[in-house]
Amino acid sequence: MIKNWLCAVLIAASAGAAHADVKPPPTAPPVAEQTAPTPVRPALFVARDEDSAIYLFGTVHVRRPGSDWGGPAAQAALAAADEVWTEMDVSDASQQQVQMLIFNYGMAPPDRPLSSYLNKAEREQLAAAIARFNGSPEMFERMRPWLAGMMLSVMPMMQQGYEADAGVDRAVIAAAGDARQRTFETAEQQIGFFANLSDEAQREMLLDAISEANEDASQMDQMSEAWAHGDLATLETMALDDFRTNYPELFEVLFTRRNNAWVDTLTAELEGSGSDFVAVGAAHLLGDGGLVELLRARGVRVERVE
Question: For residue 283, what is the DSSP state?
C-alpha cells in the first residue's frame, strides 16, 4: 500500500522519467474512451475567519482519464478563488527541471549499485518485476533505492491506464483562470524528501515496491473510488494506517513535517483577506495530523462543504 501515496508526492514529476525508460507491455489493456466526464464528489473543506476563506481540496495525482476533477462545490470555490495552491509546480514548463533533479539526486555512485542493497532472493524478485514491465535492468542498476522504488511503483499504474496528465492537480491549475498560482514547495525540496532518506528507509521503499509490483491496480482503483465519493474513512484506512505503523521515518518526512509546515503557511494566509483554494494530496487532509485537524487545533473554524 505504501507505493500509492509515496508516488503521490512525486508521481507527476517522476512519470516523465518512467516513460523515458519503461514501455508498457504490449498486453496492457486499452483505456476506454469516454464521451463525457464522469461526475465525482470528492471531499471539500473550508476554513474561515471574518474576512477570508481557505478551501481545502484533497487530490489524487494520477487517474485514468475521463472524469471530472471535482464536484460543483469545488468548481465554484475554485472559480471564486484569488489564489490557488498546489504542493509544487506541476506545469509542463517545470518537467525539464524536475527530470534533471531526479537524475542528479536519484542516480547511484559507481561503487554503490542498486543490487548492493539486496540479497540474492531480493535481486531475483527485482529482476522479475523489471522484466514484467519491460524495464531496463541496466538503468535500474544505476538508480538509488528511492528512485528505483518510485519507478517500480509508477510502472503498474501506467500499465493499468493511470496517467499523471489526468491528475487532479493539473486539472485544477488548468481550470484556475486568472487566480494567482502558489506552491508550498519547490521540486528540489520534494525530491530531497526522498533523496535524504536513510539507506534503510530507501531499502524499505524499494522492497515494498518490489513486493507489490506483481499485484494489479485493484487497491489503487479502490482508493480512487473512495476519493471520488468523498469517503474519507476508507481513504484514511487505506492510505495512512499501514503507512504510519510500518514506515515511521517515511511517514514523518512525507506527512508530519510537511503538514506542520503547510499549516503555518495557511494560518498566515488567514491573517489576510480573500479566498484561497488549496489542492494537495487527499492524504494530507486526513487524520489527527492532517491539515483539517491541525487547523482546528489552532482554533480555526473548519467545516466540510456538502
Answer: G
Q: Average pLDDT of 223-238?
A: 93
* Terminal CA-CA length for the chain: 29
- CA 76 from chain centre, in angstroms, equals 24
Cell numbers given for 1: 500500500
Sheet of 301-304: strands edge to edge? 180-183, 83-86, 274-281, 52-59, 44-48, 301-304
**Non-local CB neighbours of 153 within 8 Å, separated by 6+ positions:** 3, 4, 6, 7, 209, 212
Rounded Cα–Cα distance for residues 3 and 19 (Å): 18
- Per the CB < 8 A criterion, the answer to whether 50 and 271 are in contact is no
**pLDDT tens-digit profile of 111-141?**
999 999 999 999 999 999 999 999 999 999 9
Give Cα 258 to chain centroid, integer Å.
13
Within a 10 A sphere around the Cβ of 20, how many other Cβ atoms?
Answer: 10
Residue 62: partners with Cβ closer than 8 Å, 6 or more residues away: 7, 8, 11, 12, 15, 157, 162, 163, 164, 166, 167
Provide φ and ψ at 285, rounded to 5°: -95, -10
What is the pTM assigned to this prediction?
0.87
